[in-house]
């Protein structure tokens, strides 16, 4: 019997003179996208949507590998990697971008938006383009504005009013605005990278933290170590879907368009993830043994924040605050 391999080789030799050699297929470009959270988080949902879009739409020219759990460094390091062109993309919390320009932190000013819909609209419009222009100067292209969501407090007691924060060892995101806002409200607030939070809460360095529902449900340790979630809704946190401007420039036109489309797909996925969790997240926390505190005195928090408007405005720059308020309106 004719061995199959020999047959193929023989027929290739016979056919060879008539075959027009094809150009070798270019290798698929693998884009690396990192984030600082778990594989059940909204950040991962965003990264997966990015990966799927890139793989499907580039017709084999590109695909993507996802690096969750700060495998490529903290959120600050990943944003820097994107700016340097050593990392292609990241789903980034906004607070860490404040080192590029004060205005970027102002989006997370307490009670900046009337509701989630208003925040999304601003980010998809004038506010998003304004931030995009700032980031471009640092070789970062914002390819979408995703959503971390409305931040709430977790602690081992209810937080119904600002006075409940007094002396509480509270972890906040690495940004001056967050540190000062919570210190002003009475907490003993300090900043820490998210990747270090688990250990810091376990050892008692912090006894409280604040994050959106989607981050809390994606982090088992938070549901285990914190007995209460109080629905303060004090800050709306976007996620910036960031891509390296240097890498984008290296790509050919159609691939650039694919990357831009992938950014929009990623932001839509994080928003959808949060919407779905509004229905299930609180039940998930209750099932994990947490108490959900709904009767928060939001007006008291808002009053306390407006009492700090001079201090916080000076910190971020009164002009920045006015500019962002105009772009949000
Ligand atoms: O993954 O640092 C934070 O609290 C952010 O919400 C978190 O990094 C998102």
Topology:
Elements: H1 4-15, E1 29-34, H2 42-57, E2 62-67, H3 75-84, E3 89-93, H4 102-106, H5 116-124, H6 126-136, E4 140-155, E5 169-172, H7 176-184, E6 188-191, H8 197-202, E7 208-212, H9 213-218, H10 220-225, E8 228-244, H11 245-250, H12 253-287, E9 291-293, H13 298-307, H14 309-316, H15 318-328
Parallel strand pairs: 1-2, 1-3, 5-6, 5-7, 8-9
Antiparallel strand pairs: 3-8, 4-7, 4-8
Bound molecules: (2R,3R)-2,3,4-trihydroxybutanoic acid (EAX).
Structural write-up:
By secondary structure, the protein is α/β, with parallel strands linked by helices. It has helices at residues 4-15, 42-57, 75-84, 102-106, 116-124, 126-136, 176-184, 197-202, 213-218, 220-225, 245-250, 253-287, 298-307, 309-316, 318-328; strands at 29-34, 62-67, 89-93, 140-155, 169-172, 188-191, 208-212, 228-244, 291-293. It contains 15 helices and 9 strands. Strands 1, 2, 3, 4, 5, 6, 7, 8 and 9 form a 9-stranded mixed sheet that branches. The radius of gyration is 23 Å and the shape is globular. The structure holds (2R,3R)-2,3,4-trihydroxybutanoic acid. The site of (2R,3R)-2,3,4-trihydroxybutanoic acid has 11 residues, from loops.
Overall radius of gyration? 23 Å
Q: How much is the average pLDDT?
A: 93
Count of alpha and pi helical runs:
15
What assembly state would you assign to the polypeptide chains in this entry? single chain
Q: Say which molecules are bound, naming each kind only once.
A: (2R,3R)-2,3,4-trihydroxybutanoic acid
Provide the β-strand percentage band. Answer: 15-25%
The main pleated sheet reads as: 9 strands, mixed
